[in-house]
Amino acid sequence: MYPFHIRPKNWRPTMTDPRIEAAARALCIAHRNDPDDLVWITTEPGVQEPYGPRWVTCYHEAKQALDAADAAAWRPMSDAPKDGTVINVLLPVGISKSDQDFYCYPGSRVSFGWAWENQKFRPWTGLNLPVFIEPTHWQPLPAPPASSAELGGVDG
Questions:
Q1: For residue 1, what are the contacts with CB-CB under 8 A and spacing of at least 6?
Q2: What residues in the chain have per-residue pLDDT under 50?
């Protein structure tokens, strides 16, 4: 018996980062490969990976490029806008578990939606709660899609 399950050709897993899949599809097309000529396999419980040598190459190239772009996108807080612009921040290593659970995206140090207010960066909640954590880096918010159709949905 095989250690993984083979999935139908156009089956899409729920665990894949859609940015990586979109970038891998674009790389496949740029290399004149069919991005739909693949299957997904379960490599371990809850982990889905593409299968097929061309797709795997494009997938890993896309992941490396996006990881590098994500790392380069973090800017020092000294460069953060102090005009009320809402930004995403990276909180310091070693914050308490309760602060991480309260402020951060699960399993990370990234906290969404902060702004300069009352001479300090704080979560943009409309509440004037005391904040004792100083972010280390920031990123601008990503641009929203022009329409839900860009996300595969239907407007209206």
A1: none
A2: 1-15, 156
